[in-house]
Write a structure and sequence with these properties.
Helices cover 28% and strands 28% of the residues. The protein is of the alpha+beta class. Strand 1 and strand 2 form a beta hairpin. GO terms for molecular function: metal ion binding; transferase activity.
Amino acid sequence: MKCGWKAALWLVAACAWSAQATTPQRYQREDVLGTSFEMIVAGDDAHAGAAVDAALAEIQRLEAVLSTWRSDSELAHFNRGRSDGQVSADLRAVLAACEHWREASEGAFSCRLGGLQNIWRNAADSGLSELPDRIALRQRARAIARIEFDASAEALAQPPELQWQVDGLAKGYILDQAMQRARAAAPQAGGIKLDIGGDAIHWGEPAPGQAWRVAIADPAAPRDNGPAIATLALRSQALAASGHRSRGYRIGRRHYSHILDPSEGWPVAYAPSATVVAADAASADALATALSVMPIRDGLALVESLPGTEALIVGERGVAFASSGWHALLATDGGEPATEPERLAIDYEIPAQAGERYRRPYLALWIATPDGEPVRQLLVLGDRSRWLHELPQWWRHYGRDDEAAVHGIARPTRAPGQYSLGWDGRDDFGRALPRGDYLLQVEAAREHGGHERLSLPFRLDGTAVLQQTQGRREVGRIELRTAPGAWP
């Protein structure tokens, strides 16, 4: 077989790395940016120590620029208005990134909340149970959002009423810059991982042909030895996670999230946790925070619009929602991303009903095991709690435990007609389900109407199947089709 020059170069490089590859060198430090630091260097033992020193030096340098906790940082001076408008390239880049993600998330992410966070911090530190004035906070938050600020201006003028708090993406930015310094210090390395407090950036491979395996902790059980809800296989990708249980403000007997809704100045309640994979750590960091504020449906739409970006969003009670490409990141037992599972297409009908008091039905479709245990939520139509409660089987499995998350993905009711949706053979966490027997569950309820539930059994085993059933009144014809390896 004739090989091209690119293939030959790849083979030479792979053989050279294989010859020099040794056990990856692991380094750990404490109290780096106030948390733990881990770094792994693979394939360049001679320069691994220098790479760690270079990364730590860059982290220390940028902490002096971006810290909101140090009174002597460049950002602290800028916030106090003690600047002639000439700021470092790093501070300018971070402020520009903050404003970019504020616009991209339609205000769900914001670095402009330093003053509001100080109000919450002072309320928590006072030892009293008195909450900040909610109306005053809302007015101030919306005034802050209207302030004009141009991060590209030659001289940056700091508005006196604006206090920057860049923690939402500063750690990611620092990780990106530290990785650049580490790679320069270890030019023969085949892979490097940098992790600060659970947010990480990965470059290359830990060994030839292998991906970095990353366990994702369960946000409902954020213990160091808690169970993982997924294991990812990553190459030259960054990961960041947001959560609410371990950080926040305690006022009286209540705990409030440290993440504020930028439009209200108030801690988000019943907010989901998010894990984001992106090409760079700053983007992953900002998105993880934004997804904890945005309605889940809107957050997933934002992720889907960004190339090379995937996310897993987990509601307060554990209901999971994965972006369409999340499953491709999941590691198999061999350490590589999982293969594409079998797919299924579903056609469903909302029948027309005569009468002046007709109301569009609330409808839910989900996949369950033969004993009724839900494995994947497919669709929820309807956004009023009263009528979502009228879907008792669905409500018992999904809505009751995480009403806020359900409202985050529920879509408006639909007019009578024929509709279609698809299932990729995965569960709510994006994991491929084993072949076997399953149920398509359909439940509908309508104001001034009735209630109806259909259960359509099918087998997922690699053979093409056509299954149909017909509802009596609230649901029309339901058809599902399966085919191995591709959409039917």
